[in-house]
Amino acid sequence: MRIGTTTLISILFLTALAVTASAEEVQLSQKEELGKLLFFDESLSMPRGQSCASCHDPDFGFTDPDQDIPVSQGVIPILFGNRNAPSAAYATYSPNFSYTYDDSGQIIYYGGQFWDGRADNLTEQAKGPLLNPLEMHNPNKRTVVMSIRRSDYADLFEEVYGPCSLNNVDVAFDYAADAIAVYESSEEVNTFSSRYDEYLEGEYTLSDEEKLGLELFNGKALCSGCHISSGSEPIFTDFTYDNLGVPKNPDNPFYSIPRVYNPLRSAYVDLGLGGSGRTEITDPEGEEGKMKVPTLRNIGKTAPYTHNGYFTNLEDIVHFYNTRDVASEGWPEPEVAANVNTEEMGDLGLNDSEERAIVAFLLTLDDE
Known about the structure:
The protein is mainly alpha-helical. The chain has helices at about 5-15, 30-40, 50-55, 120-130, 140-150, 155-160, 170-185, 195-200, 210-220, 315-325, 350-360; strands at about 100, 105-110, 240, 290.
């Protein structure tokens, strides 16, 4: 069940912050420039060596460039997060975490940041990795702010946020997160420069295979039920949460990190939205296994796929969507068996050429 079209349009209208432009044309504001410097600063980890861009590389659609590992590695080499880093591009279009009701009265949660929606917005999201021991490993806010005070852009920081804005640790940390979020909301990160955007503007002609893929995407394959393709600048997500029935990934290195960080080891189960601890959720068990529907923009650059990096290529994940519930395919059991979406995927009846056409269309969503 999905958010109604009218509701979604209202959400997009209220939260759309970027304007179409290519990266070459972008002129960053002072605050955006400060946010960019913070985003790429490898001295903001402990020990130094990891920045936001380390797991959100522009050349890889603002996701992790190490595509051979299913989840993201922290600055400490033996530590790994439990999830694959989602794209920072187009994340600004996600509304703050909230909920609505579908036509049957069922509650639908949407928006927020991270796979489980635990952060309301980009500013709150930016704070998480800085203090996460499995990521940038800073012990506290003071460590981060001290690094900023020593940086070459400390003067710019005070130009943007005012004299003495670095004096108070809590305030300065909040300002840093704000600046990062502002950069992530800039036209440099959200370029709308894909072949599909050119197609919508009448400047690119889809191939026959790409055109078939688009027709299937909006029709037989049911993709657009969650990855909305309508509008002049579609984000290809409805910002809701879904359990796709993705299997547990036995290659996830999170299972073997020290017990102080993962006491359950390989018995760990990622409950997604149901385990996010959000107080708005009245029935956490009813949300277990659900992960935020990601944007499909730059999907060709952002392997591996799904929250645990189970799928290493687009062909495999499209085949999974098509055949998950076909017994002869032999897919493993879902990591979380409850709340699996059986209405919009699992046995779509697509043939091999139709699967390939969908992949061909998805590749048109990569920004130049």
